[in-house]
Structures are given as structure tokens and as C-alpha cells.
Amino acid sequence: MNTKIIKIHDNDQDVFIEAGKIIRSGGLVAFPTETVYGLGANALDSEAVAGIFRAKGRPQDNPLISHIADFQEIYSLCREVPPEAELLAENFWPGPLTMVLKKSDAIPMSVSAGLDTAGIRLPSHPAARALIRAAGVPIAAPSANTSGKPSPTTAAHVLADMDGKIDMILDGGACSVGLESTVVSLCGERPRLLRPGGITLEQLESVLGKVDVDRAIREQISTNEKVSAPGMKYRHYAPRAPVTIISGTPEHTAGYIRTHISPSTGVLCFDEYVSLFESAGHVRGYGSVYDISAQARQIFDALRGFDSSSVTEILAQCPSDIGLGLAVANRLKKAAGFNIIEI
Ligand code: AMP
Ligand code: MG
Questions:
Q1: If you classify domain 4-217 with CATH, what class do you get?
Q2: How many angstroms separate the CA atoms of 74 and 131, rounded?
């Protein structure tokens, strides 16, 4: 298959009409969102959705998020929409938040991976919304990467993984958040954070009160254990060389890494410390220690960058779990398979 790449501009209606037609006729289109690039198919069409799993090599038990362009669509996709969902939508939609709700029969089991629930998101990126509107159907879209690799935050990342496997890539430049959406379940007694993302735990709690935090966010879950968000149990976001997180204050971790590097070591660090690691094989800053938004935007590109070097191990600094730091740290810990040295 020849993958068509099109640069988009906000008022490029013809492009969205063409891409929408591809979605409606069962094809696959990668598109930019504020979080990461999504790999979209018609969420109401099981066969189209099967194509997503094939292109990504995604495990069958990992459900997909359905993307909508108008809040009202939630009522046909979900059996129950509790007041908390409306409250969250008022505060955080459109935006980087996915709600897990009891699904209606409109969503096929292939989308929910056999679960009785559905992840729903209303993205804020104008191109994502224009595509959903042009398609006229909700769009099921996981991140547009090969399963296990870091999520794509540019069209070039998507192309590297998906060339020849999908119909079209809409190139809308780099993603503004850079991490996947926050996933919160509203199906239990209390709201439960299943995946941290662009909307922080603190923001959720300011609207909902106490939110439980799923154990899989901070700890390794074994592959045969039952987890609330199936995606959380897989090794993820991983470059080829194994990653080790050095945990402690930035000054201490920088000092530790400096004494443990060789030319075959890669270092993933805060910008302030890049110059300390000249003897390492590949050094990549992923934002200032004081700028977690910059870290979120750059972490996946930084992780991908190590694959074009020949380093055999990667030592990484990691932010603390406060605010957006919880999401950045979660992605890094998953990339490291929760291999963490506390110093
Ligand atoms: P991705 O779009 O690649 O970031 O993956 C979607 C994430 O949302 C996965 O980690 C899923 O586990 C999670 N997710 C989607 N739908 C559900 C659902 N019904 N219940 C729990 N988690 C979900
Ligand atoms: Mg993903």
C-alpha cells in the first residue's frame, strides 16, 4: 500500500473530505491531536478497526479510545453518562482527557477489546475535529506507532513506523502536549485514574474530589495479572537499548550518571546537565528541570533518538510525580520496564 502524506492547514477542507472518505470506507488515516498522533479508523466498523491492530501489531486485549467531535455523541456510544462525566467534559473537553464509561452496543467489541466499557475522548486539535466531522463517524484511534515503541509526536515518527501499512498521514506538525491523554474510569464507586496524561490528577481532583490512582501507574504489573487499563501492563515506549532510571534529586542523579558512563552509554537528562556527559555515546536533553511541559513534549522524540545511535544502555533522569510530572515519570518508568536505581 502507498501511504499518502499530506501537510494540513486549518482551512484545508478538501483534505479533510478526502481523509474522511477513507475513514468511512474502512481505511486507516493517521492524524495529529494535541496529545500524540492517532491512527484512526471508523469506530463503528469492526473490520476497519481490525486493520489498526494489524498495522500496529497491537495485542488484541488492548482497547481503543473512540474520538468524537461533539459532546452529544457520547449519549449514543455510552449506556450510562454519570454527572461526573458531564462535569469533566465541562472542565476539560475538548482536551487531553479520556473517560471510561459503560459502552452501548454501538461500539463493537473489537474496539473495547471485549470489555463492557469504552474510552471516549473529545480532542481539541482542530485537525482532529475536522477529520471526525468530515468522516461523520466516531474515530477509534490508538497512538500511531508500532506497538511497544514510543508514541509519535510528529508525522515523521508516524512515517517511520507506518509507511506502507496505512492509507494516509495528515501532517499537522509537532503535538502540543506530547503525551497520550489522561484516562479516568467513571465505572466504579469512585473515579479512578488509569493513565496519567495532559490533564493532571490534581486537576481531576479539583473537580471530582478524591480520585483513586491505579497501581499500574507507578509499579510493574505482571503480564498475567488483571489490570483496569489493559495497555498499562505491556512494555511500552521503549527504545532498543535498555533504559535505567536513576532516581533522586537532579544534582545527585547527574553526579551518579557522570561517574557511570562510557562511550556505549546513552544519557537522557534535563537540559541543565547535558554538558556534564560529553564522554557518553549519545546525550539527549528533554527539557529544563523546571519545565515539565517541555519534558512532556520532548520525551518520546528523545527516546526514539537513541535508536539511531549504537548505545547499549541508557541512563535517565526522571521528574517527580507532581502535576504533569506523574505522566512524564510514568512513560519513562514504562520505557525502563520499571528498572529504577534509587540513590
Ligand atoms: P493508546 O491510544 O495507544 O494510548 O491506548 C489507549 C489506552 O486507553 C490503552 O492503554 C487502554 O488500556 C486505555 N483504554 C481504552 N479503552 C479503555 C477501557 N474501556 N477501559 C480501560 N482502559 C481503556
Ligand atoms: Mg499507544
A1: alpha beta
A2: 17
Pocket of ligand 1 (CB under 6 A): 62-63, 65, 100, 112, 115, 117-119, 142-143, 180, 183, 194-195, 228-232
Q: Is 259 exposed, middle or buried (0-12, 13-18, 19+ CB in 10 A)?
A: exposed
Phi/psi for 241 (5° steps) reads -75, 140
Alpha-carbon gap, residue 213 to 196, rounded angstroms = 9
> CB neighbours (10 Å) of residue 3?
16
The tens place of each residue's pLDDT in the chain, 343 residues long, gives 999 999 998 678 999 999 999 999 999 999 999 999 999 999 999 999 999 999 999 999 999 999 999 999 999 999 999 999 999 999 999 999 999 999 999 999 999 999 999 999 999 999 999 999 999 999 999 999 999 999 999 999 999 999 999 999 999 999 999 999 999 999 999 999 999 999 999 999 999 999 999 999 988 877 667 667 666 656 678 899 999 999 999 999 999 999 999 999 999 999 999 999 999 999 999 999 999 999 999 999 999 999 999 999 999 999 999 999 999 999 999 999 999 999 9
Q: CATH 3.90.870.10 occupies which residues in the chain?
A: 4-217
Considering only CA atoms, which residue is closest to atom 3 of ligand 1?
142
- Order of strands, sheet of 313-317, starting from the edge strand that comes earlier in the sequence: 282-285, 265-269, 313-317, 243-247, 340-342
The SS3 assignment for 287 reads: coil
Q: Which three cell numbers stand for residue 304?
A: 526514539
- Kindly give the number of the ligand 1 atom that is closest to the alpha carbon of 64: 15
Dihedrals phi, psi of 119, to nearest 5 degrees: -90, 125
SS3 137: coil
d(CA 257, CA 201): 30
Return phi, psi of residue 78, to 5°. -125, 140
Interval between CA 146 and ligand 2 midpoint (Å): 9
Class for the domain spanning 243-342: alpha beta
Q: Where in the chain is the domain with CATH 3.40.50.11030?
A: 243-342
